[in-house]
Write a structure and sequence with these properties.
Elements lengths: L1 H27 L5 H17 L6 H23 L5 H30 L25 H5 L4 H12 L11 E6 L6 H9 L2 H6 L2 E8 L4 H12 L16 H12 L4 E8 L5 H7 L8 E6 L13 E6 L5 H12 L9 H13 L4 H11 L6 H15 L7 H8 L3 H8 L10 E2 H11 L10 H14 L4 E5 L5 E5 L2 H14 L3 E3 L12 E5 L17 E5 L3 H10 L8 E3 L20 E3 L20 E3 L20 E3 L2 E2 L10 E2 L15 E6 L5 H5 L8 E7 L4 H8 L7 E6 L20 E5 L17 E5 L7 H4 L7 E5 L6 E4 L8 E5 L6 E4 L9 E5 L19 E5 L3 H9 L8 E5 L8
Parallel strand pairs: 1-4, 1-5, 2-3, 3-4, 9-10, 10-11, 11-12, 12-13, 13-14, 14-15, 15-18, 18-19, 19-20, 20-21, 21-22, 22-23, 23-25, 24-26, 25-27, 27-28, 28-29
Antiparallel strand pairs: 6-8, 7-8, 16-17
Helix pairs in contact: 1-2, 1-4, 2-3, 3-4, 6-7, 9-10, 10-11, 12-13, 12-14, 13-15, 14-16, 15-16, 17-19, 18-19
């Protein structure tokens, strides 16, 4: 076996070389070179057949044979003499492209297995993907107030009008066409998010296309969304599939389902070439919506039964003025004086009815006094800017130039996030602090001030929110394409930073901030001066480019930010950049298991992100990093049968209490000597704490430490196993600012202090085994989200009043539960309810018809009787979206 282990990697590498040779021949071949084209494939077949013990040899042999047959078919067609030379050339080029994609897939699988110690594919850097996010400058309420309700109604009717007129069950495409900034995305999104629309279609996908997306990338992003209802059905080898395999997999899955797919910002009709297989006409009334600036793109979809075009035009004068004043005025419902309104009309005229320009200008005016003099001054500046005849609208240049210098740097930082990606709020805040953009303000932490900067950019409508947490906070954000053009121009002019994509050329040698996006070049840093780079991101990097980077990291003496999230690396160089400069180090979702000893030199490090790595113990040197503010170190168990505790934390060295500036610490393992729990009492600035493997005797020590954490916003505590009680009753006083509480483990009783949390927004109880009326006591809390997961042993859940703010209710594995009853004024704001694996719950919750705001019901592995009663009883007829998962049925309204 040892000999086999040595030989197999060499054979795999030999196969890779043969595949590469085949691709080279295919690219250069003439029409009479079939023998030379087939020779590498024959050699591969020999290698595979001679070694049946090689993993997957039979499967690969079949795939190689299929490629051989396709090459032969291509030559046969070319020698038949039919068709024009141009047509033959185009057909050949298309076939070669597809063959090479299939060969690439086999090469990737072989390369991953060539090293027997590395059997995992590289992590995907999907953290910033913009798909299914809301990058809109307007809220739905503002859309409704703009006089475009007729267009919304037209799209909505087109989506919902299925089953009436002949042909309504056929696949149809709508193309929404309009110039940049006119609000195409906003219009489509406002319909896409309607509960009736969400309920009409079983599968949904929103994909931002753009000019540079590859076929495989788009198909993979569609797959990730349409498989949400049945994630277990998604193939395990998604990352190594070529475009034809992806298209075929998605197409077969959607073959018997009604789906809605939005392709946002399409630049080329080539998108239809491979989507025809992936998005079939299932006869279920499926719909595709395309937003584009090019009117002919939608019409190029030849395989849809019908293509409609909706031209989205700018707003009229009245709606433009209304939108501008809504954004610019500090008072709601008041009419400005005539002189101010006259100036406003002149400003609005410069915006040409484009919502993007109107909200940007309105955001600027919201910072000005509501006087004619102040507004006239802005109008004069706008006209002078317009006279410069800039390539982009003067409004956007003025909106940028009006920013204070501290906000300009924060705004330009979005250059590092590609156009189809979004930036997480928490990461953005830490990055701005690490870069030194944030000025210290009395009574505020640097992070609080950075948050204020972000909200100011959002208020000015230069940054748009792409996602919110359920408890209301911004989760991620991005910038519109037209504003990105401003950013690109200023970054080039000021040498602020650059983003290197797979097709980009060289970057300037003295670049200061650099992000790489899916680049496959291993020399992209060759011409960059290490003495100038302050910030380096790796997004979706290849193994080649990452290894090139690791070799030269020690040369980057002035590096402040190093972000390797998702990069295929399993080690860091022994010597890291000079500790006097590095402030931010992210190794999230890498395969790193050990930190180098030189880590102790990073005395000014503020953020160390080890989430998703294999690091299980933090070295003693970390206690010397007394500037650290955010320490994230945990990963989730990813096997098929997770243990009781599936978030794996890290052990801390003695002396962790010296890190007095720590604000976030997750997850740490409780030590048997309670030393870690005692030291936590010194971390009084903590805002988030996660601790695991607690024993019943640890409760008093932990509570004594947490009581001193007056700034704590989030607390997660887990016992060591399902039989170990979580004794937290002695916490006094409870952190009054606490917003999120996650408890995992048996609770002898519900701690009384929980009921005193007046700021609590989210509570998740797992394996709590509460009894009696314990859950009823929670009704006084102001929570937005409540999750009970194996948390209650009772037979009845009786909600009589309270939960006045509750919007999301999740009930999971309450095996004794037979009845849910809603009475009185309980849960008046709930809009989403999820029931999972409650095997004794066979009837619809009593009183569900009282929940007038309920928009979604999701059932996972629930009894058939429950499903039948929900469908037939009529009590939930007012709920637009009802989903049943893992039971091969859909009862959408």
């Amino acid at each position: 076996m040892a000999e086999l282990a040595v030989q197999q990697p060499h054979k795999k590498k030999r196969l890779i070389a043969l595949l590469a040779n085949e691709q080279d021949i295919l690219r250069r071949m003439s029409w009479k070179s079939m023998d030379s084209a087939l020779e590498p494939l024959k050699s591969m077949s020999t290698v595979l057949s001679d070694d049946p013990d090689m993993a997957n040899a039979k499967t690969w042999a079949q795939q190689v044979a299929e490629i051989r047959h396709d090459v032969e078919d291509m030559f046969d067609r070319s020698s038949s003499g039919g068709g024009s030379p141009i047509r033959l050339f185009l057909d050949r080029r298309r076939m070669v492209k597809r063959l090479n994609s299939r060969i690439d897939a086999i090469k990737l699988r072989l390369s991953l297995l060539a090293n027997l110690d590395d059997r995992e594919s590289p992590a995907n850097a999907t953290r910033y993907r913009m798909d299914d996010r809301q990058l809109d400058p307007l809220s739905v309420e503002e859309v409704e107030a703009l006089g475009i309700e007729r267009r919304r109604a037209e799209i909505s009717k087109w989506l919902l009008g299925v089953g009436g007129a002949p042909g309504e069950g056929k696949l149809k495409v709508m193309s929404v066409v309009g110039e940049a900034g006119v609000g195409k995305t906003t219009l489509v999104r406002s319909v896409y998010n309607e509960p009736q629309v969400r309920g009409r279609f079983r599968c949904h996908a929103w994909v931002t296309v753009g000019a540079t997306a590859t076929a495989a990338d788009l198909l993979r992003r569609i797959m990730l969304q349409v498989f949400l209802e049945s994630p277990e059905a998604m193939p395990a080898n998604v990352d190594s599939m070529d475009e034809m395999q992806l298209a075929d997999t998605v197409g077969r899955y959607l073959g018997d389902k009604a789906y809605l797919v939005v392709l946002d910002d399409v630049w080329s009709s080539e998108v239809w070439d491979y989507l025809g297989v992936a998005l079939p006409d299932s006869g279920m009334g499926s719909r595709i919506i395309v937003s584009t600036r090019v009117i002919d793109i939608g019409r190029q979809c030849r395989w849809a039964s019908r293509v409609e075009t909706l031209v989205h035009t700018p707003l009229d004068k009245g709606s433009s003025l209304q939108l501008f004043l809504r954004k610019a005025s500090r008072w709601v419902g008041c009419t400005p004086d005539p002189e101010l309104k006259e100036i406003a009309a002149e400003i609005v005229r410069e915006c040409r009815g484009l919502p993007l320009l109107l909200v940007a200008m309105g955001g600027l005016m919201s910072t000005r006094p509501q006087t004619a003099e102040a507004w006239q001054d802005v109008l004069d500046k706008l006209r002078r800017t317009r006279d410069l005849e800039l390539a982009l609208p003067a409004v956007l240049w003025l909106a940028y130039n009006d920013l204070p210098s501290r906000l300009k740097a924060c705004f330009l930082y979005f250059i590092l996030f590609p156009r189809t990606y979004c930036a997480k709020r928490t990461a953005l805040v830490r990055l701005w602090v690490a870069e030194g953009f944030v000025q210290k303000e009395y009574g505020r932490t640097l992070e609080d001030t950075a948050e204020a900067y972000l909200h100011e950019l959002i208020r000015r409508n230069l940054v748009q929110v792409t996602d919110y947490y359920d408890y209301g906070k911004v989760r991620s954000c991005g910038v519109h394409d037209m504003l990105r053009e401003i950013i690109i121009h200023k970054c080039e002019e000021d040498n602020f930073g650059a983003s290197v994509t797979r097709d980009a050329g060289k970057v300037r040698a003295d670049v200061r901030r650099l992000s790489t996006v899916d680049t496959k070049r291993d020399d992209f840093l060759r011409d960059v001066s290490a003495g100038h780079v302050r910030t380096l991101f790796m997004l979706g990097a290849s193994a080649a480019s990452t290894s090139s980077l690791l070799a030269i990291i020690p040369e980057y003496k002035l590096l402040r930010v190093l972000d390797l999230e998702g990069a295929p690396v399993d080690r860091l160089p022994e010597e890291l950049p000079d500790g006097s400069c590095l402030r931010y180090l992210s190794l999230r979702n890498t395969r790193i298991s050990k930190l180098p000893k030189s880590l102790r030199k990073l005395t000014h490090l503020q953020t160390l992100d080890l989430k998703g790595t294999y690091v299980s113990h933090l070295p003693a040197g970390i206690t010397r990093m007394d500037s650290i503010r955010h320490l994230l170190a945990y990963r989730y168990y990813s096997g098929q049968h997770p243990p009781y505790y599936y978030a794996l934390g890290v052990t801390l060295p003695r002396g962790i209490g010296q890190l007095r500036d720590l604000q976030k610490l997750t997850y740490v393992e409780a030590t048997r000597d309670k030393g870690t729990l005692v030291e936590l009492a010194r971390l009084t600035q903590l805002k988030r704490l996660g601790i695991v493997k607690l024993r019943s005797g640890d409760g008093g020590t932990l509570c004594a430490s947490v009581a001193k954490m007056t700034e704590l916003l989030s607390l997660s505590a887990s016992s060591s196993d399902i039989t170990e009680p979580l004794n937290l009753a002695s916490l006094d006083p409870a952190p009054r600012k606490l917003e999120r509480l996650y408890l995992r483990g048996p609770l002898p009783e519900l701690p009384r202090w929980v009921l005193s949390l007046r700021n609590l927004q989210r509570i998740r109880l797992r394996w709590s085994s509460l009894k009696g009326d314990a859950i009823v006591h929670l009704q006084c809390l102001p929570v937005i989200e409540l999750a009970l997961i194996q948390a209650y042993d009772g037979v009845t859940l009786h909600f009589t009043e309270g939960f006045s703010n509750l919007q999301i209710l999740e009930i999971d594995h309450l095996t004794n539960l037979e009845l849910i009853r809603v009475e009185g004024s309980a849960m008046p704001m709930i809009h989403k309810m999820s029931l999972r694996s409650c095997r004794s719950l066979t009837t619809v919750p009593e009183g569900i018809q009282r929940l007038k705001h309920l928009k979604e019901i999701h059932l996972f592995a629930m009894p058939d009787a429950m499903v039948a009663s929900l469908k037939e009883g009529g009590m939930a007829s007012h709920v637009p979206v009802i989903r049943v998962y893992n039971q091969h049925r859909d009862i959408s309204q």
